[in-house]
Design a protein that fits this description.
heterodimer; A: Jelly Rolls; 2 domains; 5-stranded antiparallel sheet; 1 helix; B: mainly beta; Jelly Rolls; 0% helix
Chain lengths: 215, 167
């Protein structure tokens, strides 16, 4: 019998190569050890639904969900209390925000023909959209890939692509990159309804997924 | 959307290249690269597609990307009839790494070109943020079954390369 209890002991179990007869406990133990074949490597971790005013949306303790190298964050139908606000995101290390400046490089594209380079090395937070409005149908949607944030020896990076209606009901999108150039254990995310100030989220869904890999 | 892991390789000691294969259906595939770093300062990551698990080294790769720069004006980065795709120059200092999500299209279809989109975020050897967003194509009507990565000079020092099928 193996250390996991399955019979026979050999061969050693691994993702994509499981042989033997397994009890539910074997499956549980092997899954926790990343040695059991579970197809579906996009793991839904948390969803926060906003239906009344909140000043931030926080995801913390990300390491407790697994040691993911890459996360996917989706923002769906996000509305903000005040006009002309853009959604920002900070990394949290055990709940503590960084005082270090973020570097950002994004391309803003507006359907009225206005295209702008969004760039800087001293942003107060990462940005996930350009300015959006607060009238009916003026909302934001975005997806964000987050890299290396649980690795305390590496910087935390993102790529993002947002889609929104501006404060004058002009369709826009923005895509780009960001980095917190500090080696920290960033096990949390804080979403702000205004990268440069304060407001409230009034609605929408924020979902975080882990992209699993079996070594 | 769901993902099924097809292949992965985590580099912890230097290797000259990484190849991920196993594309055998008409589904869209995704590659996640994280913490990919060169052994030689200033080297840039390169990518080729594989045919029967061997890199296609022909000069039939075309690419068009927008280069996003945190510290200066953005640029256009494009190539035609190249022998692979080029990405941002990285370095050997802490976190001068390459991270990227790529989607792969039409690889299994022998009568179509093979396409990829790129969504790169990198820290350059000059300690600034760079991104390249765009796409590329291998203009050969053939089935391709994977991807091959290497640096413009020297070895791959570290990184995790994972290929998924999108379901």
């Amino acid at each position: 019998m193996s250390e996991f209890g399955y019979i026979p002991e050999a061969p050693e179990q691994s993702f994509g190569n499981n042989k033997g007869i397994f009890t539910p406990k074997d499956i549980y133990d092997l899954t926790r050890a990343d040695k059991y074949t579970n197809y579906g490597q996009l793991d839904h971790l948390i969803t926060t639904n906003v239906s009344s005013n909140v000043s931030t949306v926080n995801f913390t303790g990300l390491e407790t969900y697994g040691n993911y190298n890459v996360f996917l964050l989706t923002l769906n139908d996000i509305t903000i209390e005040h006009d002309n606000k853009l959604i920002g995101m900070e990394f949290l290390s055990n709940g503590v925000a960084s005082s270090t400046n973020y570097q950002v490089a994004g391309q803003s594209c507006m359907s009225n023909g206005s295209f702008n380079e969004i760039k800087g090395t001293s942003y107060p937070a990462l940005r996930l959209t350009d300015n959006i409005g607060n009238a009916t149908n003026e909302c934001a949607n975005s997806y964000v890939y987050i890299y290396n944030n649980l690795d305390s020896t590496k910087y935390s990076f993102i790529t993002y692509h947002g889609l929104f209606q501006s404060n004058s009901n002009v369709q826009g999108s923005e895509f780009g990159s960001g980095v917190l150039p500090t080696t920290r254990f960033d096990n949390g995310l804080r979403l702000h309804p205004d990268q440069n100030g304060s407001s409230n989220f009034t609605g929408g869904n924020f979902s975080l997924y882990g992209i699993k890999e079996y070594s | 959307m769901g993902l099924v892991q097809v292949a992965t390789n985590t580099v912890t000691s230097a290797v000259s290249s990484v190849t991920l294969t196993g594309i055998n259906s008409d589904d869209v595939y995704m590659v996640a690269l994280n913490n990919v770093q060169p052994a030689s300062d200033g080297a840039y990551l390169r990518m080729r597609f594989t045919v029967s698990a061997s890199a296609d080294t022909s000069s039939n790769y075309d690419r068009a990307t927008k280069e996003l720069r945190a510290d200066t004006t953005f640029g256009n980065s494009a190539q035609t009839n190249a022998d692979g795709f080029n990405f941002i120059e990285n370095g050997t200092n802490t976190s001068e790494t390459h991270n990227n999500i790529m989607y792969l299209y039409n690889f299994n279809n022998a009568s179509e070109y093979s396409f990829a989109t790129f969504e790169e975020t990198s820290f350059m050897y000059s300690e600034t943020l760079r991104g390249r967003n765009g796409g590329g194509v291998l203009t050969e009507t053939q089935a391709t079954d994977g991807v091959n990565y290497f640096f413009s000079s020297g070895n791959i020092a570290s990184g995790t390369f994972t290929l998924y099928k999108v379901i």
